[in-house]
Amino acid sequence: MEATIFGLEEKIDELLVVLDEDIRNMRASLSRLDELRSLVVKHDEAALAGLLETIRGEVDSYHSCELKRQSIRKELAVILGCDIEHVTLSRLEGTLAGEKKAQLAKRKAELRSLAGKLKKEHLKTTMLLSDCARFNGALLRGILELGRTGAITYTSDGATKAQADSGFPDGRGFVNLQG
Known about the structure:
The chain starts with a helix and ends with a strand. A hairpin with a 5-residue loop joins strand 1 and strand 2 (160-161). By secondary structure, it is mainly α. The longest helix has 50 residues, at 98-147. The protein is elongated. The chain contains 4 helices and 4 strands, in the order ααααββββ. The chain has one domain: Methane Monooxygenase Hydroxylase, Chain G, domain 1. Helix 1 packs antiparallel against helix 2, helix 1 runs parallel beside helix 4 (98-147) and helix 3 (89-95) packs antiparallel against helix 4 (98-147). Residues 172-176 have low confidence and may be disordered.
């Protein structure tokens, strides 16, 4: 019994380290979303490319953290004699007492708070990017409408034919944007 309690406390210590890493990752994600919105508004393509590279470089770290967490959950499931799906922070908190319980509860509350903030920031970023796409589409439609010549032509049988030329030269004549 004592060995099981020691094993549980050892795995909880490992889990606390992983949860701290999760907290750092979530804070970094919040920062990245804020930076992304700022760079999109500024139209800073070079900085956006740099941000993308930074994010790509962090993917392995996030994945490694996820693998560690899942490994610890599997080991905790064995110690607790339950399925891995039942190994949650709430359940672990219920099995602990004293300082370990307080440490786990603190991290759980912080993760819950950060998850709420991350969801909100993700929504803000999605809305900004959606508005940018909508604005760009409207701008492009407006530019293309300005370039249309508006001329109506007739076919040999007298039917009207839509104008295919956009009015924008490509160096060889006119570009057919509709074909």
